[in-house]
Structure formats: C-alpha cells, structure tokens
Amino acid sequence: MNLSNIKDRLAYFKTLYQKSRDRHSALFERFERHRAQYKGSRSLDGATRDATVVRNITYELIESQVSTLIPTPAAEAKQYTEQNDRCAKAIERLCAALRRELPFEKLNDIDERYTYVYGGSVWFVEWDSTIHKNGAHGGVRLSCLSPMDFVPEPGVYDVEEMQYCFLRFSTSAEEVARRYGVPLSLLREEGEEGDELDTVELILAFWRDEEGRVCAFAYSGDAVLLDHEDYYARKEMTCKKCGKRECLCLCARPALSLSSVEEEFFSYDLPLTDGRTLPALSPDIDEEGNLRGAELVPTHVPYYRPRRFPIVIRKNTSEEKSLYGQSDCEFIRPQQQQINKIESRILEKLMRSGVTPILPDDAELTLDNSIFGQIIKLRTGDEKERYGVLDTTPSIAQDIAQSDRLYEHAKRILGISDTYLGMSDRSATSGYAKKLLVEQAAGRLESKRKMKQTAYAELDRILFEYHLAYADECRPISYRDAFGRQKNALFNRYDFIVYHPETGRYEYNDDFLFSVDLGSCVEQQRELLWEKNLENLNAGTLGNPAESATLLHYWLCQERAHYPGAKENVEYFRGRLEEERMKGDAYGKLTELSQGLPQEPEDLGL
Question: How do the domains of the chain map onto residue ranges?
C-alpha cells in the first residue's frame, strides 16, 4: 500500500472498513437475532403479532453451561534440553502469574456468554508501555470483545490467514485524547440535538505488508490516532541529520522522527537466572561462517518481533467455512419460538376463562365492581336448585405437556440433562447412576471445553511473545513447589537467547508447544478429588500413613484441592516434621558423643 498522504490512507481504511462491514451484514443481523433471543425477545418469526409470554429456555440452558474454570497454562519445548525445560517452566509460571494479575475471572465470565450466544468470542491482547509496576516498564492489557465489534476480511476463516481485519471500540473521548495525544476537539461528535457525545467510536485496523509484517492504523472520525508500518518493531526518536538517538543528538536543530530499532547492544556481561552469562563481546563471523579476525566485537542481538495478529478467536463448536463456531441460540431457536407461542396461548386461555352464572328470568341479582361482589338474593320460598353455573375454563394440560416436550427437545439438542442442571431426575435411581449421567452430559460438552482450552493456549503464546519482545526488566513471579511452599522466581527474556557458533548470531528461542494442564479441570469435582486423596493415603501410595512426612504430603494434596481447613493442617504437620528432625539431629549428636566415651572397665585402664 503506497499511500503517502495521511488523508488518502484515512479515506482508504474508512472505505475498506465499510465494505468489509457491508459484506458481513447478514452475519451481524444473525448476531443481533441471537442476542435478542438470549435477552428474551417477544418477536415471532413470520408472525405479525409478538408473543405475550416468553419462557426463556435459551437463557436457562446457556447459563447452565457457563464455567468459571480458567485453564492452567502448560508449555513444553519441542526439543528437550535442560535449558529449554527451565525456559518452559518459566513460561508456565509467567502465564500463571498473569492469570492472577489480569482480570481473567471477569473476562472469562464475559467470554463464556459471548461464545454460547454468538458462537464465538474475540480476545485482543496489547502491550501498554505506560504501565509501570515494581520497577518494570510496560505490561499487557487484555480485552474480550463481542464478535459484533470485530470485522474480518471477507471470505477468510482463520485470523492468521487474513491480510487485514478491524476492531471497533466505543470509549470516551477524553481517554482517546489522553492515550493517543490527539486534541479533544477533533474527537467530539454531536448528537441529534447538537449536544456533544460522551463516547466516540474508535476503529483499529491490523494489516500485513509485502514482507508479512503486522501493521496498524487507528482512527476516530476524521482524526488519525495511530499509523505504524511495523506494529511490533521497537520505536525510538532519532535525528534524520546525524542518525543518532534523541539523547545522543548534538545537532542545533535536530530533525527528529520515529524510527524502528532492529538490534540491541550489550555494554557489559549480562548475568542470566540459570547462572550463565551473556558476554558483552563476541567473535566477529561473516555471513559465510568464517572468522573475520581475532578481535572481538560488541555483542548485538536482534529484538524479538512477534509475527501474528494480536487477536484470538474462541469458537463454540466448529462450523464449516465459518470464522466463528455454531451458536446455541441458532439450534434451539425453533423450540424457543414454539414455546413462546404455546405459553402465549396458555395465557390467552386463562384470561378468557371464567364461571358464568345461569339465572332464571325473575332472579334478583345485585352486582358491583369488585371481583367477589356478586350477590344473589333469593325470594322467600324460592329453591336454589333453579340457579346454576357454566364453567367455560378451557383445558391447558395439552399445552403444558407440549411446552415441556419442546423444552426436552432443546436440552437434548445441546446435550444437557436434568442432572446436569441440578434438577431432580427420576431416570437415575442411585447416586452412582446420577454420577454417570453428569459425566455423560459433560462428555457431550467436551468439544466446547476443547475449543476453550485451544483459545487459552493461543493467548498464552501471545502473552509469552509480548514479554519476549518488550519485557526489558526481569518480571518477578511466584509459584508453589511440590511441597506447597511459596517460591519467588524471575522471568528474564534474555534466558531465551541462543547462540549459534557456526554463524556467530544470537537469536531468541520461541520454539515451544503451548497447551493447558488438563489435570486442573478436575477442580470442578473437588469432592471426588478429596476422596481420591484419602484413598491414596490409606493405600500407602503417599508413603507410610503413620509418618508425619506422609501426612504432610496428604494435606498438601488436600490444600491444592481446596479442602476446608487443609491449610491449618499443613502448618501443623510441617511444624511437627520440623520438631522430629530437630529431635533426630539432637539424638544423633548424643549418639556420636556416647560412642566416643569409654564403655568397658579395660577402656578406663582398670
């Protein structure tokens, strides 16, 4: 794209955004229909009149699937070495620390509903250099967006295969002006009555250049907020006249501009967390692998540069030729519509029903406006058998049965049973049978869980690549070891630098496999985990149950499974084990001293 004029670039992206949005108009209409159905819309397809009653089974069934479980990160090196294994552990601890630091609980709650309602959700990861915490500069910001705020390239069903895509944000004008340094007057828009609006629409475009590098362009109205040809490159202010950085420039009138920095140089030996050292000087080797001279040259390492869009799509269940997955709203919409019709019919029947009195011609009947204010006065000697009633209440038993039948259809379509919903299920007559039903229902929903785990693994890769590219300072992280003790560690991006002696080049190692720890999913069944830990203790698989070390191991397992009161027991047996060790050390010293003393009379010289 060779558009040198900023106005031409703005017009180009505006036109491209509008064309892409128009091409996806049918998809956005479908999203609107799904959202209205989830919210309990009264509209009926193909009907001129709306339903009067809504039995929102869509909301009920979707909410029953919402999971609060956040997958635990897992990383593995493609080629095992001790250094690669240490790096993989550092990645896991970094991502686990970010799970606790970032608002993952809130974002997961939003993500679950977006996924089931729309068929997918959009995660956006960005590096914010304005974040300063614990002496470190820069940090990650994470957002979970609705698919209605993401405009992809038409006809492409994978984010990494797209040439461009757009994100839409609705935010305050003051926030945009502060973050991008744009005058507030350029962002203010007027409403229908001439009043200034509090929020503005921000469009962020990501695209790839001829070399496959990720570029970014952002605008709001007619104000250009961001225009980076190389989005992930390091940027510094340099002088066009002397070519030096702003802090080193000595020109009288420097011509400063923002330029990319490709490499970093070391002025001193850099210590790494595993005891190794990154030297400040390295051999000078040419492109063919030959040594140019005996003198060493300053070590230079190219900055790491991510290659993927900072966007992750989580699917519900896969669908052919679709960027997103299949929406639960779409599959149970026929049942929802029919139930709304039947429930409205039931209400109409009940409203029209009543008991009509049958009176003779000469009856004296007094009425007022209250419901129970009808009074029938009998004449003296008159028989009450001459009076009667006609019950016009219609039967709604068949309507209720059909409504419940459609509800059962919807549950079967999504693979949800009454036991899974926490309702009474007479099909299971024992506790074991109920357990099997729950496991069977969870098995039918396993595909959705796999898609969630895949999305979180992709998120972990982007989080790792961002820290590999921009985390200049070491990041302090904490974790628990096998004994449950809290440990401190550091994530140092320089630990991932690998030296190739045949070429004399330094490169960052990002060749890792990302997944999630499937063992963490068992936390949903904590009572079962508690029982298994107790079985392992009684079976002796944890050690001798009479020893304090074994009991400490058992309570550490229970603490990880969130057993009530487990933490206090861990502290108790840890102190008890320490006392036993101290007594053992004291007994050993006494034994050594006693062995050095004479024991027999001849040893005493008698």
Answer: 348-444, 521-594
